[in-house]
C-alpha cells in the first residue's frame, strides 16, 4: 500500500474540555490502514502541546486505555496530548495466529519489526510507533515536535521501555505498568519472538529491556508500577530481573510494588495520575 497523508476522523467526542478523536490513515510501515486514538487537551488557538504515546497490552486496541483509565482528566490538567496506536496491524490480508490465539497475531504485535513470514510484511509496529506515527501526528495535529513521552501496560509496557532504550533522545520520559520485563525469558515473549523474529535469540535481545539496559546510551529514568496481586507477575512479567539489570548497570529505576493490585485497568486508573506527574515534569520543563 502506498503511503499518503490523507486520514479519516472516525469519531470525535468532547471530554474534560478537550477533544477525543479516533483516526484512520494509510501506513507505509505496516502496509495497511492503521487506526489510532488521540486526545487533544484544551488549548489556545495556535498553540502546540507535548504528547504522551501510550502502548496498550495483549488483546487491546487503540481505545481501551482512553475508555477505562481516566487519563483524559490528567492530560487536560497538565496540557498534554495522548496518542494511542493500535496494538497490531489489522484488516484484509493481515495474518492472524492459528486458532485465533489471543497472545499472537491480531492485538499482539509486541512492538517489533517482524522478520519472518507471514508476519514480516505487516507486523512492523516498531517502525510505525517510533517513526511513522509521530511524524504523521506532528504534521496534522497541534503537537510540539520532539516533545514526546512514552508509557504502556504489559506488552505495551515492554514496548515503552524498549522503544525508549533503543531510541536515545526521542522521548523525554518513560514509564510502564506491569511491563513484560524480560520477554526473551517468559512464555508470552518466547512465543511471539519465535514467530516474529525466528529462532535466533540474539535478535530477541534487541527487544528485551533487560538485555538493552547494560548498553543504553541514555540513562532515562524508568518509572514502573507493578501490582503484587498480578496473576502474571512471576511467570510472565519478572520485574525482579529489570531491577537487577538496572542495579548492575547503574540505570535509574523507580519500581513500585503495589500491594493488593492486579493486572487490570483498575490498577492503571489508580496510579495513572502519578505517571502524568512524572511525564509532565520532563515534558513541561523543556517546552
Give a brief rundown of this model.
With 287 residues, the protein is an alpha/beta fold. It has ten helices and nine strands.
Would you spell out the secondary-structure blueprint of this structure?
Layout: E1 7-15, E2 18-27, E3 32-40, E4 49-55, H1 64-68, H2 71-78, E5 81-85, H3 125-140, E6 143-153, H4 155-166, E7 173-177, H5 187-197, H6 201-204, H7 209-212, E8 222-227, H8 233-237, H9 239-249, E9 253-258, H10 265-284
Parallel strand pairs: 4-5, 4-6, 6-7, 7-8, 8-9
Antiparallel strand pairs: 1-2, 2-3, 3-5
Helix pairs in contact: 2-10
Question: Would you write up a description of this structure?
Answer:
With 287 residues, the protein is of the alpha/beta class. The protein contains 10 helices and 9 strands. A 9-stranded mixed sheet has the order 1-2-3-5-4-6-7-8-9, sandwiched between helices. Strand 2 (18-27) and strand 3 (32-40) form a beta hairpin. Helix 2 (71-78) runs parallel beside helix 10 (265-284). The longest helix is centred in the C-terminal third of the chain and has 20 residues, at 265-284. The chain is globular and about 50 Å long. The mean pLDDT is 96.
Amino acid at each position: 500500500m502506498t503511503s499518503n497523508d490523507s486520514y479519516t476522523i472516525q469519531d470525535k467526542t468532547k471530554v474534560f474540555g478537550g477533544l477525543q478523536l479516533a483516526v484512520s490513515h494509510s501506513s507505509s510501515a505496516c502496509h495497511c490502514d492503521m487506526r489510532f486514538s488521540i486526545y487533544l487537551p484544551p488549548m489556545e488557538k495556535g498553540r502546540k502541546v507535548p504528547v504522551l504515546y501510550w502502548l496498550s497490552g495483549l488483546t487491546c486496541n487503540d481505545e481501551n486505555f482512553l475508555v477505562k483509565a481516566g487519563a483524559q482528566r490528567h492530560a487536560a490538567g497538565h496540557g498534554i496530548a495522548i496518542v494511542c496506536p493500535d496494538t497490531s496491524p489489522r484488516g484484509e490480508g493481515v495474518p492472524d495466529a492459528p486458532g485465533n490465539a489471543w497472545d499472537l497475531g491480531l492485538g499482539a504485535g509486541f512492538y517489533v519489526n517482524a522478520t519472518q513470514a507471514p508476519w514480516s510484511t505487516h507486523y512492523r509496529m516498531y517502525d510505525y510507533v517510533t517513526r511513522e506515527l509521530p511524524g504523521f501526528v506532528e504534521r496534522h495535529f497541534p503537537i510540539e515536535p520532539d516533545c514526546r513521552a512514552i508509557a504502556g501496560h504489559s506488552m505495551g509496557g515492554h514496548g515503552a521501555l524498549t522503544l525508549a532504550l533503543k531510541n536515545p533522545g526521542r522521548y523525554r520520559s518513560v514509564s510502564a505498568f506491569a511491563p513484560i520485563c524480560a520477554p526473551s525469558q517468559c512464555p508470552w515473549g518466547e512465543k511471539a519472538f519465535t514467530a516474529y523474529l525466528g529462532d535466533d535469540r540474539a535478535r530477541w535481545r534487541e527487544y528485551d529491556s533487560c538485555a538493552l539496559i547494560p548498553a543504553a546510551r541514555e540513562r532515562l529514568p524508568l518509572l514502573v508500577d507493578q501490582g503484587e496481586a498480578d496473576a502474571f507477575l512471576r511467570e510472565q512479567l519478572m520485574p525482579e530481573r529489570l531491577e537487577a539489570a538496572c542495579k548492575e548497570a547503574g540505570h535509574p529505576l523507580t519500581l513500585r510494588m503495589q500491594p493488593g493490585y492486579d493486572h487490570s485497568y483498575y490498577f492503571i486508573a489508580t496510579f495513572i495520575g502519578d505517571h502524568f506527574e512524572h511525564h509532565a515534569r520532563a515534558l513541561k520543563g523543556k517546552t
